[in-house]
Amino acid sequence: MPAVTHETQPIEGQKPGTSGLRKKTPVFTHRHYLQNFVQSIFDAIGGAAGKTFVLGGDGRFFNDKAAQVILKMAAANGAARVIVGCDALLSTPAASHLIRLNKADGGIILSASHNPGGPQADFGVKYNIANGGPAPEAVTEAIHARTQQITEYRISDTDGIDLGSTGEQTLDDMVVEVVDPVADYAALMEGLFDFDAIREMIAGGFTMRFDAMNAVTGPYATEILENRLGLPAGTVMHGSPKPDFGGMHPDPNPHWARGLMDEMMGAEAPDFGAASDGDGDRNMILGRGIYVSPSDSLAVLAANAHLAPGYKAGLKGVARSMPTSTAVDRVAEALGIEAYETPTGWKFFGNLLDAGKATICGEESFGTGSDHVREKDGLWAVLLWLNILAVRGQSVAEILADHWRRFGRNYYSRHDFEALDTKAAEQMMHELHADLPTLMGTEIEGMRIASADDFAYTDPVDGSVSRAQGVRIRFEDGARIVLRLSGTGTSGATLRLYLERYEPDPAKHGLDPQEALAPVIRAAHALAAIRHQIGRDQPNVIT
Ligand code: G16
Q1: What are the pLDDT digits (tens) for 297-321?
Q2: Domains of the chain from N-terminus onward
Q3: What is the value of pTM for the model shown?
Q4: Is the Cα torsion angle 260, 86, 60, 98 positive or negative in sign?
Q5: Which atom of ligand 1 is nearest the CA belonging to 20?
């Protein structure tokens, strides 16, 4: 058959970060770049021969062409079957579900998530393993190692495949099954949530706005929210995936989803607002006149999940990434279940979910999900909120106020300093790291430091150890500062500064988080000498 072997040589920098390999699009479209990485994936997993893969992406620029290259490479490497979304579209959680549903050996997801798309913007490739989740570090390290030794890749010398309609075709000896990207995912959601109760709430006048940010969630949200749940047409805004996301930065946070924020804070606001990101795994939750921080959302979902049919048996445990606020830990304590603290990166939740140690996981970076798939899942979070609202018959603001009254409020914010000089950012972390042993017991801004360390994680399931996962400084009153450099950017370095302070007194739950956190923010700037090190003292994104 027409499989051709091309000679190639290693390309520098093909090291997957927090979530797959993300680079500028011109880097990915450069000769052999995608091919080298995909061949390295196949080589690192022991070859593709006889295997079944799932393939799809968020529809960004180069998604369609990259999918054709990967199909031809899978065929030339002897794969038995590739299940691919129509038009090569699949949200990340839907891809995770398809891997599990079809017992596939793995999946390749084309996405740079919340990063902008377009010829000069970002592209990404991520490999997921047979449990449906992102490849763990051992696998991404093996892929990276392979990229440094590669000498050839194999690709079929055929025309591509028409991915415009569903059905089975063959590419050389490989079966290509083109599937509706939405159907199986929508069915999974119907099984988890009480759609009748949500329909009844909607029939009673409940209103909602969902911003799909011109990204992949549009078709999923339209099918589920409008077609199946009966919300009026137009509930989903920016609902058609576009290669450049219509110029939007598809990151669902108060900064990038400004239009939705303004609408939700305005006089005509609907009852509920939500947004999702480029590949559909992130979510932002809003009520009329109120923003729900992702850490609070995780805590509320954990405390109320039993109200949805899929979780009525209760939770086995919860897990959050280290920088995520400890609000969910308080819920876990009340429920008498374990709360796990993992490094940043959804891949670290995989073992806990597989082992039945955690049912719900979440991150401050607008990610929440459960053991229904092995990725975070934006629409899942929206539907669980809708289910809770329908059962409790209260507004988002009432539910949040209730939650804080019961558990106390963890004021929380993340400050991002983007596009920094990489050397300066690394030097800052290096010097801060060197100071850590001297910090315990010292006082700053009237708060005494209880501990200061660099987070290292030992996976409780397989014993693997991940070091240098972020600096954490804890104060005796429960306040906390975390600093780490982002692993998902594509230019320069991004410093993430995470700030948290616990307030048990309900009379003090109405403050603006920036105001409530002011002493913690000042302490962070002083301890890390941020202005001195990176030449800036103002973040460019605050969430
Ligand atoms: C990815 C990871 C998340 C992580 C986020 C931010 O999300 O899956 O676990 O929290 O990046 O990572 P960083 O702080 O290193 O930039 P996504 O939605 O981009 O795939």
Answers
A1: 999 999 999 999 999 999 999 999 9
A2: 3-180 (3.40.120.10), 185-407 (3.40.120.10), 409-542 (3.30.310.50)
A3: 0.95
A4: positive
A5: 20
